[in-house]
Write a structure and sequence with these properties.
261 residues; alpha/beta; four-stranded mixed sheet
Length: 261
């Protein structure tokens, strides 16, 4: 893959991830969304796809029953995208993908799974600004009217069902990034962003490979993973900070005091 960049050490890795030019406000603000994976060979497949079988036929049933059985007050009552964000946040298989605005948070997810330390990891970096090139005009109008860079669930509220959203596929493939509601400190601390595509069968990595101007992949060699992991721990980019609560604390302690490389 021509878009792959492989650093040989920590300094090169950070330099590549933070190679952010000044923008129109004369500030060093990245337009990229980042997603870290423990194995560089994995595609950008959704949790719904990973169910296998006729996953497309059960998407509606999964969300419908999630909404039906959720405890009162747990969901945004009339907003499809708020419901999807909550469902994704709590582990329901959906067509959404999790991203972050933070390169170091992406590095955490690329190095958190010790069982994959025999494989190269990867951070996918997608230019959210340039990725809007394929958006249908309806979505462009919303961004212009709101003077917005990213969609919110409220801005997407005119789409009442996934079937309504999938009708936009008639105009071609596109990726749409949106901000989830700040449901809890986990979403805030992770700098969370979500992506969605207008057909449940679309694989984002396949889409991106046809548009090399939209992305790069930063490979984390397996030989570098322990150094990256230890330096992230030193910077407090850990399960304890990214997953506040006893579960995140326990995961961090289990890994931190476990065997090293």
């Amino acid at each position: 893959m021509s878009q792959d960049i492989t650093p040989s050490n920590w300094n090169e890795l950070i330099q590549i991830l933070y190679d952010i030019p000044k923008g129109h406000l004369n500030r060093y603000r990245s337009d990229f969304a980042y997603r870290g994976l423990a194995n560089a060979s994995w595609k950008l497949e959704t949790s719904l796809m990973r169910l296998g079988g006729d996953y497309d036929k059960i998407e509606g049933s999964l969300l419908r029953n999630f909404v039906k059985y959720a405890e009162p007050g747990a969901l945004q009552a009339d907003n499809l995208w708020g419901k999807l964000a909550v469902a994704q946040h709590h582990g329901l298989p959906t067509r959404l993908l999790d991203w972050t605005t933070s390169p170091q948070v992406a590095l955490h997810f690329a190095t958190a799974e010790l069982e994959h330390y025999d494989k190269d990891g990867v951070v996918w970096c997608v230019d959210m600004n340039d990725s809007r090139q394929d958006l249908p005009e309806t979505f462009w109008d919303i961004l212009r009217n709101e003077y917005a860079f990213l969609f919110t669930v409220e801005m997407l509220g005119f789409i009442k069902s996934l079937e309504d959203f999938d009708r936009f596929y008639q105009a071609g493939e596109f990726i749409l990034f949106f901000q989830p509601p700040s449901l809890d400190s986990r979403i805030v601390n992770q700098g969370a962003i979500l992506s969605v595509m207008p057909n449940v069968h679309l694989i984002l990595s396949d889409y991106l490979q046809q548009r090399p101007n939209l992305y790069k992949r930063v490979i984390i060699p397996k030989e570098l993973k322990w150094e990256v992991r230890d330096k992230l721990d030193q910077d407090n980019i850990t399960e304890r900070s990214l997953f506040p609560g006893l579960d995140g604390l326990s995961s961090w302690l289990k890994r931190y005091y476990g065997p090293g490389g």
